[in-house]
Amino acid sequence: MAAKIWIDVEDIFMFAVGGGRRPNGIQRLSFELCRAMARRSGDSERIRFVRHDRFRDGLAVVPWSEVEALFTRLITAADETQIAASAAPAGGVGLRRRVAAMLRPLGRWLAPETRAQAVRVLRLQFQAVVALYWLVRMLAHGLVMRLRAPWRGRAAVAQAAPVAAGPARPAAGDILFAPGAVFVHPEYGAFIEKLARRDGLRVALLIYDIIPLRRPEWCGQAHVHSFRAWFDDVVPRCEILLAISRSAASEAEAYARLNGLALRDQVHAIPIGTGFTTGENHAAPAQTDGLPAPGSYVLCVATIEARKNHLLLFRVWRRLIEAMGADAVPKLALAGRVGWMVGDLMEQMRNTNFLDGHIILVDHPDDGQLEALYRGCLFTVFPSLYEGWGLPVTESLAFGKPCVISNSTSLPEAGGALARYFDPENIAEATEVIRATLADRAGLDAWQAQVAREFRPVPWDESARAVFDRLA
Questions:
Q1: CA–CA separation, 363 vs 332, rounded Å?
Q2: Cβ count within 10 A of residue 454
Q3: Which of 112, 119, 179, 297 is the most buried (most CB within 10 A)?
């Protein structure tokens, strides 16, 4: 009999409890992979989705329908204040929406990075309230269950709604697969060690990247320390190691060798599916107010943070305008929220009036706006200094749009022969590659036709099959 696979989805629920954000690349990739695995297994008993049972120090089964419903709420939230509705105390969501409606007009007067920090402060305050609520509720529930039925043991209570279906009962040789951001669990190593010792579970882990270890200058110091402690503790305990790219796999192995960590498995790259599920209203026309006219812009989709290297694009566009003239240079649309370590860049853009309107910031675009931006752009640019995979690259190609991208880390794996490359630390080289693309519109049309003709999207079922093959 084949081993059963218990898929750890606790991090998705923890993300929802945090509130105030749309799912990022890790959450979306993890969800698509889990959904493909659920579909591939059908009605068989081979896989089950689990959360952490804090009272039993074990696992609690959660129906896939509940995971899917939660994720749908996350990606269809009309604005950030609606995210984490399923984890909020009763009545809290309505209050939060009313407060957000009152504050939204004031937020429009703030600069994007200032607004982002204000939203972050409010989100953290709400997160603290929600966490306190669930702590009190869990403690009270546990006390009631102890008094009511002590002979039944402690109740399996999940950290956030929805309530898990019941305790998981793994058998020796079964596999616990962690496909998401489990590095948010500071005690994950001790947790999986207990499961392995008590229940005989084997642990499989999907590695996304080791940016805090390889390039700590782009991360907060606390995150660097916590990620290093997590990696050093958890990864050597895992019997099966997967990664989202060959680059991520080789870098994880190299770090382990340099730091004397004995890995129990070679890190195997799996193919990553192309494209993500959009919300239930994805067929509705996108709100395109404020978006640049189709055919008038080049697109960059990424959170504005130091690692994504938007500073290079700012300098490239300034050089292009000086060399070619403002009328000959299309606008640059930056689609993504304002993140961290970019205060100087944002001030530079404001001081130049966003290069006199040549740079357009599309803050927090939803899925419909992103689709409209992809379809309307001339091509995309992605100058990131370090990536675990490169989702914006495969998204661009899936929409039939050529992309000019960094040649760093995993990005050549994502772009293949259909992308054009530059050194992300060489402004002159990046300027020349982008200038040549803009100057040859006939060549750009032929390139776009080639992308439409030759790009092969990877179905998520192929990713799921690769995972099942490795876990077997």
A1: 14
A2: 11
A3: 179
Long-range contacts of 121-125 (CB under 8 A, 24+ apart): 122/20, 123/18, 123/19, 123/20, 123/21, 123/80
Tell me if 443 sits within 8 A of 435, measured CB to CB: no
- pLDDT, residue 118, reads 73
| C-alpha to C-alpha distance for 316 and 442, rounded to whole angstroms | 22
Contacts of 336 (CB under 8 A, 6+ apart): 300, 301, 302, 303, 304, 308, 362, 363, 364, 365
Closest CA to 49 of 65, 70, 63: 63
Residue 223 has pLDDT above 60, yes or no: yes
Quick check: pTM over 0.85?
no
With contact defined as beta carbons under 8 Å apart, do 277 and 23 qualify? no
Q: Would residue 62 be called left, alpha or beta, if left means φ above 0 and alpha means ψ between -120 and 50 degrees?
A: beta
Give, to the nearest 10 degrees, the angle between helix 188-199 and helix 221-234.
Answer: 20
pLDDT (tens digit per residue) in 11-35: 998 888 765 567 888 999 999 999 9
Alpha-carbon separation of residue 45 from 39, 66, 178 (angstroms): 12, 17, 18
91 vs 1 pLDDT, higher one: 1
